[in-house]
Amino acid sequence: MSKKIFDEILLPYDGSRFSKKALEKAVDISKRFGSRLHLLTVVNLSYIQPPGGLLGITRSSNNPAKRFLNTSRLDAKKALGEQARLCKMQGAKADYSVQVGNITEQILKFAKQKKITLIIIGSQGLHGFGKLKTLGSTSRKVSELANCPVLIIR
What we know:
Elements: E1 8-12, H1 17-33, E2 36-43, H2 64-89, E3 93-100, H3 103-113, E4 118-122, H4 137-145, E5 150-153
Helix pairs in contact: 3-4
């Protein structure tokens, strides 16, 4: 059985105003077409890795970067779980996942693993020089490299 375009929707979510708008649109589409909505947050190690961590200087079990990564992952899981709960309250079928790594790579990997048929993504995220760009680097890369349609929400 082939999948329809709206069967499996991926929403990369970072809490930015654009990802919140994308979430609203994704919930609407999910409810209309009976789609499963997958919320995904990616914790990017490069944003939290301290200097010297890349050189192996900070390898103790008391590593502040490791603690911060774990805290970031738990915070993301809690926030995303709350968003998934709100989606379900609105009548959407939703689940969520928190991944660690390069944001674009993890989005594309997740999309392939889950056989996503549509990605809905905000045009700009929480990082970078969003006001100077017309399109965020992550949404641009995802739209160029994804194997399925990508809806970019502004």
